[in-house]
C-alpha cells in the first residue's frame, strides 16, 4: 500500500511517498521518494506516471490526502472566525470543505455536477433508509433508480422508500422554500407515498419501545413543531450551520411528529437547511448507525423542556458526530 507520509521538522512539514508491505507478522515501510514541503507542488498525475505500478491501488487515498490537505493549508492562511461550539481544527476543516465546494465543485460543468449529485442522492437514500432497517444495497439501489431494475427478494416498501427519497431530493433541489410546518408535512407525505396512509402530523399518542425519550403527546405535536420552527428562525443566523442542524434534528426527532418516517424526514430536513446556507449536503453513514442512535438517545437526557432554549453545550458529543459525518461524507462524495 502506498500513502503520503508526513514528517514535522521544526515548524515545517515534509512529505514523502511511502510504501507499506506486510511480510509475515511484520510490516515493512520504505520511502519511494521525497516530495518536499509544499503540497501544492505535489501532482498526483506526475506520481502516477512515475510510480504507476506502486500507487495504482492507493490512487484514491493519495488523491484524497493531497486534496484535503491542500485546501486545509489554504484556509490556514485566512482569518477564520472562531465558533463557540466548534474548535479551531473543526472550523478549519469545515472552511476547507466550503472552499473546495465553492471553488472546485460548483464550477464544474453541469453534466459532471449532475452525475455527482445523482450518485450522492442514491448514496444518501441507501444510507438514510438503511438506518431505519431497509436492506437494499448500494448496487441494487443504483440499478433500481438508474436502470429501473427492481431488486429481488426485497419488499415493495423498501423499493418505495428508495424511490420516494429520490423524488423528495429532486423536489427540493434548486428551490428556496421557507421551512414551515406545511413543507415538513409535504416532505413526509412524499416520503410515505405508497407506503403508509397515515399522512400529516399524528393525532394519536405513541411509545417508542426501547428508547428513553417520550414523544410529544398528540395534542401538543403541532404546538411543539411551531415552537421548534420559532427556535429555528431565532437561531438560524446565530448558530453555526452544523450546530443549528444538530440541535434541530434532535429536537425534531424528540417531538416525533409522525406515525412513521420521522428519521427519514428529519435527515432530509437538515440537509435542506444546509442547502439554504449554501453548504454541501451530507450523509449520516449506516456504518455509524449505532453511534448515531446512541448519541441521539444520550442527548435525550439533556433536552430542555423549553424547545426555544439554546442548550448547545449539552450537545457537544452529538455536534462532534455530525461534524465528523459532514467531513467524511463531503470528501467521499464531492471530491473530483
How would you describe the overall organization of this protein?
With 336 residues, this protein is mostly helical. The chain folds into 2 domains: 2-77; 110-333, Orthogonal Bundle (Fic-like fold). Helix content is 54%, strand content 9%. The chain has a 3-stranded antiparallel beta sheet with strand order 1-2-3.
Strand content: 5-15%
CATH C-level class of the largest domain: Mainly Alpha
Q: Helix count, per DSSP?
A: 12
Give the strand line-up of the largest sheet. Answer: 1-2-3
Structural class: mainly alpha
Helix content: 40-55%
According to CATH, the fold-level topology of the largest domain is: Fic-like fold
Question: How many independent structural domains?
Answer: 2
Mean pLDDT: 90
Order of SSEs, N→C?
EEEHHHHHHHHHHHH
**CATH homologous superfamily annotation of the largest domain:** Fido-like domain
Distance between the termini: 22 Å
**Sequence stretches where pLDDT stays below 50 over 5 or more residues:** none
**CATH architecture tag of the largest domain:** Orthogonal Bundle
Q: How can the largest sheet be summarized?
A: 3 strands, antiparallel
Radius of gyration: 22 Å
List the helices and strands and how they pair.
Elements: E1 2-9, E2 12-23, E3 26-36, H1 44-55, H2 59-76, H3 88-103, H4 110-131, H5 138-147, H6 156-172, H7 181-191, H8 221-235, H9 241-255, H10 262-276, H11 289-300, H12 316-333
Antiparallel strand pairs: 1-2, 2-3
Helix pairs in contact: 2-3, 3-12, 4-5, 4-6, 7-10, 8-9, 9-10, 9-12
